Amino acid sequence: MQGKFKFLFFFLFITSIAHSQLDKGNYLFRCNEKLVEIIMEDLFTPPVASRIQVYPNIAAYEVLCFKDNKLKSLAGQLNELTKMPGPLNKVDYSVSALVAFATVARRMIYSEYMVDDFVSKETSGWLLTNNNDTVLLQNSVVFGKQAAGHIIAWLRQDNYDYTRTLTRYIVVDSAGAWQPTAPDYANAVEPNWPLMRSLVFDSSNKVRAVFPLKYKEQKNSAFYRSALQVYTQSKKLDTVKRMIAQFWDCNPNITRSAGHFTYFIHKVSPGGHWIRITGQAIKNRQLNESESAKIYTLVAIGLYEGFLSCWTDKYLYNTLRPETYINKLISPKWKPYIETPPFPEYPSGHSVISSTSATILMAVIRQPYSFVDSSEMYINLPPRKFQSFRQAADEASISRFYGGIHFMEALNNSIDQGKGIGNYILGKLKVNN
Amino acid sequence: MMPRTIKVLLSLLVLPGLYLQAQTQLFSLLPADSTGVQFVNEIMDSKHLNVVSYEYFYNGAGVSAGDVNNDGLCDLYFTSNVGDCKLYINQGNLKFKDVTAAAGVNGGGGYKTGAVMADINNDGWLDIYVCKSVAANPKLRKNILYINNKNGTFTNRATEYGVDDEGFSMCAYFNDLDGDGDLDLLVLNHPYNLNFAKTIHLTYNKKGELVAVKDKPTPYESDQYYENVNGKFVNKTAQAGLATRAFGLSAILEDFNDDGLVDIYQANDYLEPDYLFINKGKGKFVNEFDKFFRHGSYSSMGTDYADINNDGFSDLMTTDMLPEGNYRQKQLRRGNNYDEFEKVVKYGYGYQYVKNVLQLNNGNGSFSDISYYTGTAFSDWSWAVLMNDFDNDGMKDIYIANGYMRDITDMDYVRFKMDSVKKALIKTGSQDDVLKLLAVIPSVKVLKSYFKNYGNFDFRRETKESGLDHPAWSFGAAYADLDNDGDLEIIVNNVNDYAFIYKNNTSEKGENRSVSISLNGPLQNRNGLGAKIRVSTPDHNKYYFVANTMRGYLSNNDNKMVIGIGRNPSARVLITWPDGKTQEENARAGENLQMDYTNAKTPVQEGMKVSRYFEDITPATKINHLYTENPYIDFKLEPLLPHRFSQLGPCIAVADLNKDGLDDFVVGGAKDVAASVYFQQADGSFNQKPQPALAADKKYEDGAIAFIDIDRDGNRDMIITSGGNDYARNTSMYPVRFYRNDGTGVFAAYKTGILNTSSNAIAVADYNEDGNADIFIGGSTSPGNYGLIPESFLLTIINGEVKDITPPQLKKAGMIKSAHWVDLDKNGWFDLVLAGEWMLVSIYYGNKDGLDAAPYGMSQTYGWWNKLQFADLDNDGDLDIIAGNLGLNTRYMGTFEKPVTMVVSDFDNNGSTDCLISTYVKNNSYPISIRDYVLDQMPYLRKKYLRYNQYSGATVTDIFTPEQLAKASSFLANNMSSLVFINNGRADFTLKILPPEAQFFPVKAIQCMDINRDGNLDLLLAGNDYSTEVETGRNDAGIGLLLFGNGKGDFKPVPVTESGFYVPGDVKCLESISIKGNRCFIAGKNKDKIQVIKPAE
User: Fold this and answer.
1) Looking at the predicted structure, is the pLDDT value of residue B662 above 60?
2) Which residues of B touch A43 (CB under 8 A)?
3) Which structural domain range is residue A324 located in?
4) Is A185 within 8 Å of chain B by CB?
5) Chain A residues with CB inside 8 Å of B199's CB?
6) What pLDDT does B609 receive?
7) Which tens digits make up the pLDDT trace of A331-352?
8) What is the ipTM of this complex?
9) Same domain, yes or no, for A259 and A362?
10) CB-CB: which of B198, B202, B431 is closest to A257?
C-alpha cells in the first residue's frame, strides 16, 4: 500500500512539473535558452547566430498558427516563405512546434547532441503527462519534422551556403579602411553577409544608417575629435562604466593570452542577450504559448534584420575601429577596455539590434515594463536593473563607447537605424488574424 | 609458486639479453643509484606560481659540465629551479659524489635557471656562474658567481666582480666580446610580463609611420653586457647597443661572419624575432638578423651552432615547439591566421614559423633553412639542442631535450575546455581555484629526439635505436666525456624526474675512434674560448669545431673536446686561437692532445685571391626593374591551397625585337602592371620604350611570353598568356593575347580573348611541318577551383588567323607549368614534352601523323614539376631532360612509398571545389591541413569534428564517405626530387636524382652551360617559392646552385663560395641572354628586382 502511494505521489509530482512546462508556453522559453547555450558553445559569430535564432522560431510559430487561429501565418509576409501544409493526423501542436523548432535548429548548429538530448528530455516528459500516448507523440513529431522540412527548404535558399563559397575578407590598405586588430588580428567576420536574403525588406526599402563621418587625420577634423573622445573617456573610465562595458560586451569569442598560454572565453552573442531579455519578459508577464511564439519570432526577425542591415552597411563603409585610428594618430599603445571585435566599425551592431529589439519589445510587451537583467551571471557579472527596454538598449549602445570599440557617431546613428528596422517590421508583419 | 631454480635460470636468460641490447645501442641510461647523481628538479604548481600565473615557471633548469677540481675528471653542476642546486664530483668509473654542502654552491634562494663554468679569474680553476629569474624580489634574483677556492669550496663573489645582475636571467655567456683577449659576460635577461609576449606593439617612426615598438627595457628586462676591465666587470650594455626587450631563452656567442670577432645570436621566444648581433668592433653590436637569415623559428628556445656538413662553416639550429607525430601536431598547432601573419611581417617582425630551423651556413653570409629536408623541423616542445659527433664517425648528430609539463597549447583545451571549466567554477563560486583549472590541462611526457647524421644531409631520427627513448620533461643538457674513454656522454636536467646520465658506448664498440683536445689558452682566457679547430684525417675528411662550452639551453659542456675521426689512426689538428695565432699538431686516435697557446705562432698571411665562376653585373646593365605584385590572397577563397597561384611571375622572354642584332627582353607584369620591354644598347645597358598596347592590357597578369612572326613580316611578334588566380572563377579574364611588332619593338594589340585559360607555359614549333607555327598553351590552374584540370590549347596561325587545332589528348593534359617542343627520339618530328603539378613528365612523341594519343610518362615521376630544360648532358648526341621539381625541403614530401595525395570534389555540394592534400607522417597518410582550415573550406564537417581531438587522428577515409571519395578525383605526387632523365632512345630513360643541395629549394629555373670548360655541360639551378601557405612556411632556401657535370649525367654541387652563382630571392625564371656578345643570365624574381649574372671571363 505504502509503496503504491509513494509511486502515485511521485507520478503526480512529475506530471505537474512536466505539464506546467509544456502547457504554459515555457517550452519555447526553454527552446530559446537552449539554443542560446548551443550557439555559445559552437562559437557562432553574431550575424550567423541571428540566423540560427530566427528560423527555428518561425518554424514553431508557423506550426502554432494551426493551433491558434488568432495567429496569422507569416507565409506570404516573409520573403519567399510559402504556406506550410498542415498535419494529416491529430497532433499535439506544442510538441510539433517544439520538434519543428529543434529540427530546424539542429540543422543549423554543430553540436547536434545538445539538441537531441534536449528533445528527448522534453518528449519523455511529455509522455509521462500524456498517458504515454506514443501514437500522439509520434504523429506530433512527424508533423513537427514535416514543418521543419518546409522551413529548411525555405532557409536553404537564403544564400548562406553560397556565401560560404566566396572570398573571405581581403585587407585593404586605403586610408580609413578597416584593419584587423589585436590580439588575434582575426579575419573580418562575414564580409559576404550582405548577400543574405532579407526576410522583410526588398532591395528598395532597406533601412540604412546615415553616412558615417568622413575619414580625416587632421587634428581639427570631426573624425579626429571623435577618436579623441574615445581616447579621453577611456582615461576616466569609472567602475560603473566598466561594468556596463563588460555587461554588454557579448563578444562570442574573447581571447586571453599570456605567453604561449592562450585560451578563449565563449560569451552569449548580442542577439542571444536580447533573446534572454525577451525570455525574462515572457516569464515575468506569464505569457501564453501563442504570445510567446509571437514575441520570440518578432524579436528574432528583428535581430536577423538588424544584423543584416548593419552588416550591409559595415562592409559598405568599411570603417576602421577606434583602436586602429588611435594607435595610428593618438597613442600607439592604447588598447580599448574590451576586445575589439573583428569587423568594420560603422554602424554598431549591438546598437542596431538592441534598438530594434527594444522597439519591438515595447510594442508587444505591456508597458510600462521594468526589469532586472541577469543574463550575464554565467560569467560572474551581477544583474542590472532597467526601467525600460529602451533604457537597456541605450545602455547596450553606449557600452560600446565605454568599451572603446566604437565612435560616438556610430552609436546614435545605429540606434536610429535599429528603430527604423523595428518599426518597419512591426508595421509590415501582421501576426494577429 | 615458481621453483627458485627456474627463477634464477630465467633471470640468467633475460639479463644477458638486456645487457647485450644495451651494449649495441649508442647510449645506455645509467641508473641514479649507480651514478650517485640523484638529482631531480622538482616543480610543483601552487596557487600563486603555476603555468597560468607565470609560464616561465615551467622552463626548467640547466646542467653545467666541467672539471672543477682539476683531477682530470669532468664534474657536474645541476641547477634546481626552486630547490638546491647540486655539485657532483666525478670519482671515476661514472660514480659521482654530492659535495654541494661542503662546496657551498647550493645556489641559495630564489628561482635558479642556467649555469655555466668558466675560469673567470684566470687562476686555472673553473668558476661557476648561476642565473636567477622569476622571483619578484630583486634580491632573490641576484646572479651568483661562485669563485673556485681551489680547495673544494667556492665563494660567491658576484658583487665584488660586478656581476650580481638582478634581472630576470635565463643564462649567461662568457666570451671575448670586445676583442681584448679576456672574457666578457653577456647575461640573457627577459621581461617579466608575459602578457604582451605575442602582441604587436606599434609606435611611429620619424616619418610618422607605424612601426613595431622597440621599447626601452626596464633595468631588469634587458640583456646585460659586462665588459671585463682588468678583472672587474663593467656594465656597457647601452654603449654596446645591446639593450633589448625580448624573451631571449638562449644564445650562441661565436663568429658568424668570419671576421674574427665574436658575434651574438640570441634565440627569442614569442613574437620578437631572433637577433644576430654582429660585432662591429670596439664593443659595438648591430642586429643584422635579416641580412643573414630569411626566416626564423617563432618561439626559439635552445640553440647550437656547429658544422653539420663538414664544409668548415658552422650551421645554426634553433628549437621550437611543434610535435613530430600527426596527432599531437594537429592537436597542439594553433594555425597561423593569415592576416595576423601579414601584420607581423608588415611591422618588421619578419617571417617566423613554429618549427625548428636548421640554418645551413652557405659560407657567403647567407643561411638556408634545411630543417624539412633533414627531418629535424619538429621535435615537440624543445629546449636544449646539442649538435656534436656522438658516435665518432666524423659527422655531427643532433640531440634535443624536450617536453613541457602541461600541454597548454592543446587546442581543445584552448578553445573549449578552459571556458567550460571556468564557467563550471563560476557556478560553484570557486572561480579562483587555479589548481582545478590546471588539472584539466593534459600533461604528457614526450620522447627526446636524436638525429643521427649519415652524411650528405641524411639525418635519421634514431631516438629509440640509440637508447634515448625515455619520456620525460627535459630542459638543459650537456655533453662531456665523463669516463675519459673518448666518447661523449649526455647529461640532461629533467623536471620531476632523475637527471639522465647517458653513457656513450662508442668506445666499447671499438669501431670509431676519436681525438680529445684540451686547450691551455692565453693567460686571460685559460680555456681558449673562441678558438677555432680544424681537424683533417688521412682519409681526406675535414672537421671544424669551435671551443665554446656555452651552448644548447641553460647549460655548459665540458671544455675538453672529443673529435670523432672514424676509423682513422690519426688526425692533424690545426688550431686558430682567438687572436689569430695558429698551431698545428698531430694526434693519434685515442690521444688526449694538450694544445698550448704558448706554442702558437702568428700565421703567414697568404694573399687570398678568390676567383669565382660568376659575377653580378646588374648595375652595369642599368636594369632597375622591380616586379611588384598586386595584393591578392588566394587562401582567402581556397584555404586549403598549398601555395598561391597569383604569385607566379615574372616571366621573361629574350629576343632581338628591333633587329639591331642585340638581345632584348620582355618581362611580364602582375595583375595591374603592364609588361615591360627592354632594349639592349651597344654598351650592354638596357632602356625601355612606351608600350601603350601592353599598358592597355595590364589588368591581366602575364603568365608566359613567346615570340613568333604572326604576319610574316620578319619581325618578332608576341604571344602573352594570362596567368594567375586573381580573377577567381571568372574564366574570361585569362585571354591568350597576340601582339604585332612594328619592327622597332613597339607592340600593337592583334588578337585577344579568343581563348581563355590561366597559363604559365607556351611552346611554339611547326610540329606538323605545314609551314604554319603551332602554339601549345598549357593551362596551369583553374582559378578559384584548384584541383579541376584547366584547359590547354594547341593553336596554329594560318594567314594571320588563329585557329584552335587542339587534339583531344591535349585538352586536359594536366596542371602544366612547363611545355616544350623537342625531338627527343630523333625521328625528325617534334615531340611535345609537358610537366606540371601532380603530373608525370609526359612526352607526346610526334611523327608524320601527329602526336601520340597518349603520352609516354616517365614512370613513378608524379611530381610538382616547375620547369623542364633540354640538353645533351652525356654527349651522346640526343637531348636529355633536366626536370625541376618542388624539391625535398618541404612538408609536401612525396616518395614512391609515401606519396603526397589529393582528393578533389565539391564534397559539400555548395558549388565550390574542395581539395584536401594528405602527406605521410611516419606510416600513415593524414591531411596536411589543421582542423580550422578544413572546416573553413567545408563548413559541413564542423558537425563531425566538434572537437580537435576528433580530427587530429583523422585520415581522408575517415573524413569522407566511400561514396564521396568514389566521386572525387584523386591526385598523386610520388617524386618531389629534381632529376635528370638521361635519354637512351625512344621511351627509354635513365633517371638520376640530383644531389641534396639541388633538393633544398623548388627548382623554377634551369640553364645548361659548360662553366668550367671541361667539355661537359654544367647546370645552373635557381628558384624558391615565397607564396606557400603559412603553416609550412616559405621555400626560401634557394640561393642559386651551380652543379658541375661529368659528361655522364652526374652532377656535383659547387659551393657558392666557389661558384659565385648567388641568386637568392623568390626566383621564378632564369633566361639566357647575350649581353655585349657574352652569354649571361637574367633572373626574374617575385616582388624583387631583376638580377643579371655573367660567367667570369
Assistant:
1) yes
2) 415
3) 187-428
4) yes
5) 182-183, 257
6) 64
7) 988 999 999 999 999 999 999 9
8) 0.91
9) yes
10) B198
